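User: quick one, fold this
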Amino acid sequence: MLFDVSRIIDAFGYAIYATLAVLAVWGVYNAILLYRGLAKKSLRDPGALISQVRDLYSAQKYDAAIAVCQSPTYWRTALAQLISVALENRSKSMAKVKQLLVLEFHNEVIAGMENRLASLSTIVRMGPLLGLLGTVASMIAAFARIGGSEKVNPQQLAQDISLALWATGAGLLIANPMMLIGNDMHARLRRLRDRTERQLQDFLEILEPAPTNPSATAPAPAPAASPAPPAGGSHREPATPGHRAVHPR
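Assistant:
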């Protein structure tokens, strides 16, 4: 009976090792996609893009400006995506355009990367716990074998304990690099957000209409019309206090 239990626990321990290997592969995969996605979304020198869009916008070639943002050179970058959204909604108020830009940035630009960062955080938390669970399972199996045998083999016992401790070591070995990568990606995302906000402000100054002077454009008030004289050519003087108006007979 003890032999059967130890075999079951051994199989459970090996399953934990396999799970740790899957976690490691999944973490490396997410880290590679995060760094690639961040490199595609970043635009170090936005001067050429903003200059082209400014010239086309000044010439009222809005479709051509949108086409430049969606060209293969720029369409993956966060700045080009946001400029394209702003141009497509140029007829709306500036407050509404800024609200749409915030939604576009969070939903289309960084939402996927934040989901992968959440996966990295899960791996960081699960790695040590799974490793500890594997260590406990392997130790239970090792002591079960010791209790079921008449003679203890020190070499076999040392191998079992070593295998048990390797589970904890593997969990920590997976979690520590993933934690460093996650912290680095959080910092890079913050820099991307700040840099894109500064770059986008240059374009919003082009999109925002110039303020007008109300006093210069407001029409002058029309002069009050003088009352028309009564029919018959007679003119009546307004009555003053203390005197009665004299009407011609």
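User: anything notable?
Assistant: The longest helix spans residues 154-207.
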